[in-house]
Structures are given as C-alpha cells and as structure tokens.
Amino acid sequence: ACGIGLNLVLTLEVLKEAHNITNLVVYGNDFVPESVRIANKLMDKGILPAQSQKGGICQSDSKNLHFIQNEMFDLVFTGYLTPMWDPLETNLKDEEEMWDVYENICIGKQKDSEALLKEWTMKQEEWFTQWVAEMVRIAKPGAAVIIEQVSQVYCDNEDDWDGVHQTFWKKQVDNGVWDVDPDSLDIVTAQIDSQRYNVFMRKKGKKSDVNQGNTP
Predict the structure, then answer these.
(1) 3-class state of residue 14 by DSSP
(2) Most buried by CB count within 10 Å: which residue of 19, 51, 64, 134?
(3) Number of C-alpha atoms within 13 angstroms, CB side, residue 192?
(4) Model's pTM, two decimal places?
C-alpha cells in the first residue's frame, strides 16, 4: 500500500543517498481510491527524486494482486501494513465500545478471554501472512521485501491499531511459509514511531540489480 506516495518518495531518496540507486520505474497501489488519486497527481507533477519515473499507481487490495505476474519487481515494500479491522467481528458501530471488548480480552475480563485471544491472534496473523505472500510472489528472485511501520499486537500497545508480534516473522520464515532466505530476516525499530518496527527479507534466488528495474 503506497498511500499518497510520500513514503515512496522518501524511500527513493534513501536509496539514492545510501546506495546510489537511481533511474527507477515505480509502481504502487492502495485500497483507498482518494489516496490513489492524490498519489498519481503528485507524481505527475514530478515529485519523484533520483531521476525516477512513475510506471503506474492503481486502486487494489494488496492481499490480492492477481493482475500482477509472478517475479515482476526488483524491490517490493509497503510503508504500512494495515492490520485487520475488528478480527473477532464484534460488529460494534461505536469504536470505543469495540476497543473496550478487545481491552477486556487482553486483561482477561472478557468471557472466554483465552480462546478469544487465540482466535484474534490467528486471524491477524493470517491477514499479515496473505499480504506478505503477495509481496514475495511479485518480487524477483533475490529481491528485497520490506514491510515498514509494523504495529505491535494491541495487547502490548493499546495506543495503536493492532499488529503482530516480532516473533511472528521468524516463525513464518522458519516454517517456509514465504519463499525468502531465512538468513536475510532483519527487524529493526522504526525511526518515525519507536513503538513500531520495520522488517527486511530477501526472496530466495540470485540477487537482482535494483538499479536496472522496477519497484512498487
């Protein structure tokens, strides 16, 4: 998900300054149509740095990029992996009431809290797994796959929107859920929000030359 594209611009600047990577053709998607409209408008005005150019920004679900062929991109990243909303399907219209339910589960005050926490965790992890699976699928062999600004699980940080524990990534990688090099997994604290973290992985295979290709 590229949002309105500002995170993409920052990433291009980092690639240029840190690795002298320029002249990229960038592609992106976001689920929110208005974000896509703004991103296209900004990029059409020439805000992309490092001699990069826009390939295309479209509206789509990042968990289902069926229209993109396998192994298309030299670098795949998301500036934020939006967690699953209301994974237990409380269907409460009042957000405060909904979060009260989840808080009570965290502290064991909700009926069947242990079972509900297990179900909640499973559904959120399935959501993240599917999203990242699409990122890995469209990455070329050896390409970097980067997930930025991952939220901690809600029970560990009730000021955020929920997420997955850092141990989730190693578990999935060690179990071969994604076609990535286990030795490439790197998790660091996010600079913008120290309560979040960034994840780096590399798809198995010969490393691609990002300076000669495309990045979404």
Answers:
(1) helix
(2) 134
(3) 9
(4) 0.89
